[in-house]
Amino acid sequence: MSSFKSIICGIISATLFGISGILASILFRQAAVAPEWLVGVRMLCAGAVLLCMLTLFTKEAVFSVWQHTYTALLVVLFGLFGVLLAQSSFFLSVYYGDAAIATVLQSLGPAIIVVLMSIYSKRWPSRLEFVAIILALLGVFLLVTNGDITHLKINPKALYWGVISAFGLVGYTLIPKPLLHQTPPLVIVGWGLLIGGLVANLIHPVWRIASGVNLQDIWIVIAIVIFGTLIPYALYVMSLAGLKPSSASLLGTIEPLVATTLSVTLLGTRLRGFQLIGILLILSTILLISLPLKKFLQIE
């Protein structure tokens, strides 16, 4: 795939992910839908459909991940501490707050990865990485307080689950890394979604639908499964075929921008001046971590 087509796939993927958060926010506002139920439905349906499509229409060895104990263990860990943790905490953050806050807080993931990898490799972060970490912390402070340390401007539960979702993003990124050399990414994603969905159903079964859910709500759920999960995951994997991981990460900044813009324009979310600065600081950390150092600073 050409770089141009890969960029288009990445942009559409990030945009659809951002829209899915808005759809979830609308669903939580107008229907008594539990976020745990939505997570279970989204992951179970998307995982099952994706694996079925891979089995029927491709030559991918869908069940090869279960032939070895090590790969099977990684897939299970990916489903639980990557996909399920990231998805459930993200939707809980949307439920207690809004899509803009949840998406921006999840964008802290790359900065957390830098810290964890520095600890693992027993080295100090580079100067650029250190600046990114400071900006991330300052951004969260401004987003949460709007510069006033005496009052929180967002629901504490939204903050808590948003930060947890960033750690889920870390697990989603790092756990399957050893598998990518031998297993197609979509196969890993499909099993991760299915495993996470099955476990989520132990908490809130999909057949326990809240009373008062109407046909419009069902259509929103279907849209979240198809256009907010299946298609963007597939497009994201396709974009990796023609892009470097750093470039793909940069395109990921589109998701919080879309979620924030739509939250303000469609849902009436009010963001104050310092909060907007905080959002920009958090998003800037992705740029600083992803882009090559020498393009910005002459640091050896």
Automatic annotation (TrEMBL):
Q: Which residues cross the membrane?
A: 7-28, 40-58, 70-93, 99-121, 128-146, 158-175, 187-206, 218-236, 248-268, 274-293
Main localization, broad class:
membrane
Q: Which domain of life is it from?
A: Bacteria
Keywords attached to this Swiss-Prot or TrEMBL record, sorted alphabetically, are: Membrane, Transmembrane, Transmembrane helix
Q: Which residues form a coiled coil?
A: none
* Pfam families for the chain: EamA (PF00892)
Where is each EamA domain found? 6-144, 158-290
Bilayer disposition of the protein:
Multi-pass membrane protein
Subcellular location as annotated: Endomembrane system
State the family named in the UniProt similarity comment for this chain. Belongs to the EamA transporter family.
PANTHER family reported for this sequence = EAMA DOMAIN-CONTAINING PROTEIN (PTHR32322:SF2), INNER MEMBRANE TRANSPORTER (PTHR32322)
Q: What is this protein called?
A: EamA family transporter
Source organism per UniProt: Leuconostoc falkenbergense
